[in-house]
Amino acid sequence: MERFKEQDTEETESHPVTIEVEEDGTQEAEVIAAKRKKVKALDYLLGPEVEKNGFTPREEFDSFLAEIEPPRSTSPNLWWKDNHSRFPLVSKVAQCYLNIPATSTPSE
């Protein structure tokens, strides 16, 4: 029996499918598994790391540490509101800590 290969490849769930047609008209489909890049669990859950300002997290933190200190009369929350676009990752951490109540006694 002679087999004819049709080169109709269809994308099904990112796996190419090769359909072979035999002389009697029956078809056989062969799924060829595509090689996938291994993804770490954290990258899978959070998605790819996006550098919005062109800095890695470490470079952004170093840039923040090199920043000139604002006057002590400046409100930390207002300063972070104004500088959120310059330090997006560090500002998220800062706002988490700045919004913690200053007392350990529960309110009544």
TrEMBL record:
InterPro entries linked to this entry: HATC_C_dom, RNaseH-like_sf, Vacuolar_transposase_reg
Coiled coil spans: none
Alphabetical list of Pfam families matching this protein: Dimer_Tnp_hAT (PF05699)
UniProt name for this protein: HAT C-terminal dimerisation domain-containing protein
GO terms, biological process: regulation of transcription by RNA polymerase II
HAT C-terminal dimerisation domain residues: 62-108
Top-level taxon of origin: Eukaryota
Region (Disordered): 1-20
Gene Ontology CC terms, in alphabetical order: nucleus
Annotated GO MF terms: protein dimerization activity
